[in-house]
Request: fold
Amino acid sequence: MLRALSRKLDIPLSDVYSTASFYKQFYFTPRGKKIVRVCTGTACHVRGADEVLNKIEDEFKINPGETTPDLAMTLETVGCIGCCGLAPVATINEDIVGEIDRKKVDKVIESIKK
Ligand code: FES
Reply:
C-alpha cells in the first residue's frame, strides 16, 4: 500500500513510510473489526482495570496491541479516556462501557464475540 501511495503521489517511498510510521493512527498490520481499548489509567487501575484486561486477554488469547487471527478484535490499552468517574472503563469501537465489574466483563466479552 505504501508503494502504491508513493507512486500515485510521486513521493519517495521513504517519505511515505516516515509519515506512516510517525503517526499512531496508521497501522502496518490488519486491525480487528472491533477495537477494544481497556483504560489502564490511574483511576481505572485502582478500580480493577488489570482484572478486566486479564480476563479479556485470557478469553481471546491475545495481548494488548494484538489482533485475533480471525480479525474480529484488536485489543489495546489507553492511559485515560476522560471518564474516570466510571472506572474501570473500556471502549468497544465508539461505545464506552463503564464501571466494569466481574458480571459486566462477561457481558463485554459476549458483546465482543457478537
Ligand atoms: S483513568 Fe480510566 S478513564 Fe481516566
The longest helix spans residues 49-60. The helical segments are 2-9, 13-22, 42-46, 49-60, 102-113. DSSP finds five helices and four strands in the chain. Residues 21 and 27 are 8 Å apart (CA to CA).
